[in-house]
Amino acid sequence: MLNFSFHNPTKIHFGENQIQLIAGEIPTHAKVLVIYGGGSIKQNGVYDQVVNALAEHTWFEFSGIEPNPKYATLMKAQAIIQQEGIDYLLAVGGGSVVDGAKFIAAAALYEGEDPWDILAKQHPVKQALPIGVVLTLPATGSESNIGSVVTRDGHKLPFQSPFVRPQFAVLDPKVTLSLSERQISNGVVDAFVHTLEQYLTYSVNGKVQDRFAEGLLQTLIEEGPKALQPATKEDLDIRANIMWSATMALNGLIGSGVPQDWSTHMIGHELTGRFGIDHARTLSIILPAVMKVKREQKREKLVQFAERVWHLSEGSDELKIDKAIELTEAFFQRMGVPTRLSEVDVTQEDIDGLIEKLEQHGMTQLGEHGDITLDVSRTIYEKAL
Amino acid sequence: MLNFSFHNPTKIHFGENQIQLIAGEIPTHAKVLVIYGGGSIKQNGVYDQVVNALAEHTWFEFSGIEPNPKYATLMKAQAIIQQEGIDYLLAVGGGSVVDGAKFIAAAALYEGEDPWDILAKQHPVKQALPIGVVLTLPATGSESNIGSVVTRDGHKLPFQSPFVRPQFAVLDPKVTLSLSERQISNGVVDAFVHTLEQYLTYSVNGKVQDRFAEGLLQTLIEEGPKALQPATKEDLDIRANIMWSATMALNGLIGSGVPQDWSTHMIGHELTGRFGIDHARTLSIILPAVMKVKREQKREKLVQFAERVWHLSEGSDELKIDKAIELTEAFFQRMGVPTRLSEVDVTQEDIDGLIEKLEQHGMTQLGEHGDITLDVSRTIYEKAL
């Protein structure tokens, strides 16, 4: 096991009708900015629950955060923050809203000249407004971690800071019942790939981390498809298991003390940036190709993944790996997401442009060994065609 | 899954040579009281590492915390706290030292008349001195949870408060190499039973919690005996896996959203109180008896335990349960701890006295259904003879 530090102070309130608890989590005298997306929370009752919970608070609202939140949109929140003296942000939505709130929180107290530098130059965040979250879409884990991704002119740029980690997050699985099939699929696939990116590297004999990751993968494989099937799609236990898996998949725990490989995310980001493909669908396309291209370096963990997650006990290691990759692709297909670039109309001719973007973004040494060069990324894109 | 709130803000520094990090975690101007046990930390180098790390701090020391820390001992620390204006406690040791520090921290700022009321009358703790931990014995999970058990006149009394949760804990598996076999055994068994007490109840379809618990159980079963064997007892990876398992077993995570059954602990406490038997050894004696006596109510989870933890796939459910209990007892025996009262010279004649104590301590409705009455506890003691 590698040395690590782990610290996740986000308080989680999980379960039905927990949204009311936000009243006790946000200081009474705070001036709250409620941040949300396109208004779906007004259809599904979440907005009303938040409004009721904030009856004793002074609050304002800022809506219109889009999927892959845009820098320009987020900067628009600064005016109301200054004008009203906002000192607490409540993000109500999925990962994009939470990521957006994190950037808004950091930009509001940024002391440099241009908050864009937080993303473009990775200037350190030294303070941020406190954030609370009401999560409506289980997927990114952003509700209890320190990361955020913001998009500007087709560039997806991440930043991280402990100052933007939410102080609390309410996870009510019931609110996920109103999600579209596409949102559920994307969320399950995102959480699944997050887990694999902290698992499918090389062994450092971190038995707890491995087994926790395997537990999350198995849970998502079992519960994900059920959340799409007519007979079980209203089952709250299934939604609860998916929601808790997604949070645990990227709250820092399973990645503590083990190597990580975020190449699937980075190579996938360029597909979203260039073609606007849903984030999770870039992952379901790129991950199988990464498994195939990095098969040798990931051999030991691929076999473990085959045996423990897919229960493949027969045949040679080679066969187990083949089968595990096949089953992973079949799982993605069952979740209704693509596994090949051809399914989203990306062709060989597009690859040069994607590689250029990877280079431009400094993504020239990806993977747990830093050996996924631009040439290897090209091979991965080609394998995914 | 049941509704839950989860909050664990303890910062963990895990790995070799991490003790030096305490310097950055304790405020520079704090007046620190270093609290430890019988002096083993002076033999194994931990004391020196702590002294080096605190070179720039003002600190004092208080030693002599015994296993099952005694109220009278802990109260002796109050004099030095008042006299020197101590405002930070650093517990260096195992669960008893950490539990002791928690009570010292709460008693120091207790505003009632007699700190004993925190234990005897469960008076709420409203403030406490901040605590940091350098853990030397993986077992109780006390380094990142809110619980503490203090002993007075043969009574083991627990209290809980978020105010006594350690702010940070350093877990260096290397320092566990100097532990005795008995300490290692006790620690592994304690963590194993903690995990089972949050797992072996009835199913609420909490798949993540179940799989995390199963992962910890499997890890302890695999790694525990290796930490005792000459060929592998110096292996730091094994020690690391045990150490991280023990913390995760009782940091609140696996017990969130699922029923719990702490009857083994409560029934076992009376054996420590009356006969001074090591805490973990009371658990290894009582747990198998609880499994046998509560077999019907725990049937579904016992079968799952058999299949997933012990990989028993053949035969009827009855056979699987029989075999799982046998294998659990065999695991305890492999760890060198007793599984019967006769091994520790407790007989039928002692049971009346134990039941009296349970009654006196209000332990009349134990278990996940509250149906372990004094009569059932009697049956459990008898089954354990």
List keywords for this structure.
Dehydroquinate synthase-like, alpha domain, homodimer, Rossmann fold, 385 residues, globular, alpha/beta, 2 domains
What would your notes on this structure say?
The structure is a homodimer of 385-residue chains. By secondary structure, chain A is an alpha/beta fold. Chain A folds into 2 domains: 164 residues, 3-Layer(aba) Sandwich (Rossmann fold), CATH 3.40.50.1970; 203 residues, Dehydroquinate synthase-like - alpha domain (Dehydroquinate synthase-like, alpha domain). Helices cover 46% and strands 12% of the residues of chain A. The first copy, chain A, has 15 helices and 8 strands. In chain A, strands 1-8-5-4-2-3 form a 6-stranded parallel sheet, sandwiched between helices. The first copy, chain A, has a two-stranded antiparallel sheet with strand order 6-7. In chain A, a hairpin with a 2-residue loop joins strand 6 and strand 7. In chain A, helix 7 runs antiparallel to helix 8, helix 7 runs parallel beside helix 11 and helix 10 packs across helix 14. Chain A is globular, with a radius of gyration of 20 Å. Chain A starts with a strand and ends with a helix. Chains A and B meet through strand 1, helix 8 and helix 9 of A and strand 1, helix 8 and helix 9 of B.
Write the layout of secondary structure elements.
Two copies of one chain form a homodimer.
Chain A: E1 4-14, H1 22-25, E2 31-35, H2 40-43, H3 46-53, E3 58-62, H4 71-84, E4 88-93, H5 95-108, H6 116-120, E5 131-135, E6 147-152, E7 155-160, E8 168-171, H7 181-197, H8 207-226, H9 236-249, H10 263-275, H11 279-293, H12 299-309, H13 317-334, H14 351-360, H15 374-383
Parallel strand pairs in A: 1-8, 2-3, 2-4, 4-5, 5-8
Antiparallel strand pairs in A: 6-7
Helix pairs in contact in A: 4-5, 7-8, 7-9, 7-11, 8-9, 10-11, 10-14, 11-13, 11-15, 12-13, 14-15
